[in-house]
Amino acid sequence: MTTDTEWQLTRTFTSTSGDVRWDRLGHAGRPPVVLLHGTPFSSYVWRAVARSLARDHQVFVWDMPGYGTSEKAAGQEVSLAAQGRVFTELLGHWGLERPLVVAHDFGGAVALRAHLLHGTTYRALALVDPVALAPWGSPFFRLVGEHSEVFEQLPSVLHRALVREYVGSASSRGLHPAVLDRLVEPWLNDPGQAAFYRQIAQADQRYTDEIQGRYGEIGIPVLVCWGEDDTWIPVAKGRELAALVPGARFEPISGAGHLVQEDAPAELTAALIAFLQQPL
């Protein structure tokens, strides 16, 4: 497990939902791979996987609007609908027509919406514990969503404790303290605290309900990876999703919770490399 304090995104794209920080690893001309993070995370969770994939691919990483080092602003739209549009805009900005796409959690829904609703084309799609099937959202998630304006007013010390506990629960093995610090850091100043509750308030199952009935239309190679110890979204959802996508392959990862990238980075990277390098 690497804490990696040097992970930085050095480039900026101005999207319809605010400035997006992004970067690219690997050499131009190699097959492009785009990595999408989930909520309440950032591209930081992909650091080890991204560097491994960059040996044979050109890897694009980004923080969604309202997350990580990207813009956080009052009134900002950061819903799944908005993120799907932004991802489509980014692919155009990067000039990528058929990239390989790897998406985790909320990012899985973003990639699926962009493909099914906005016509983005992928060479192949790997989904890692994605938000894709109803019902989703824990009791805590729903409580915060219904009372986000109240939670925004929490004293900073209580907010910090809540976010640390919530983020930490995504790992079955427990996060290194420095990793946990890095994951919660974007949410701890005043704009970050408001942004944390804003993204939960705008998380609505209707955005996956709109596409769930269309998973049978997906005609590209799909890999579904899932941490067997995921307490946020049960592994049974992974098997259910793989059964809905024609030809999809299901890859359970033992000893991993929802944050597979942190709990089992080597196992996840091996599964992704095998999938991405097969003839597609």
From TrEMBL:
Pfam families: Abhydrolase_1
GO molecular function, one term: hydrolase activity
Keyword Hydrolase: yes
Entry keyword Cell membrane: no
Name this protein carries in UniProt: Alpha/beta hydrolase
Organism taxonomic ancestry: Bacteria, Bacillati, Actinomycetota, Actinomycetes, Kitasatosporales
PANTHER family reported for this sequence: HYDROLASE ALPHA/BETA FOLD FAMILY, PIMELOYL-[ACYL-CARRIER PROTEIN] METHYL ESTER ESTERASE
Keywords: Hydrolase
Source superkingdom: Bacteria
Origin species: Streptomyces regalis
AB hydrolase-1 domain sequence ranges: 31-265
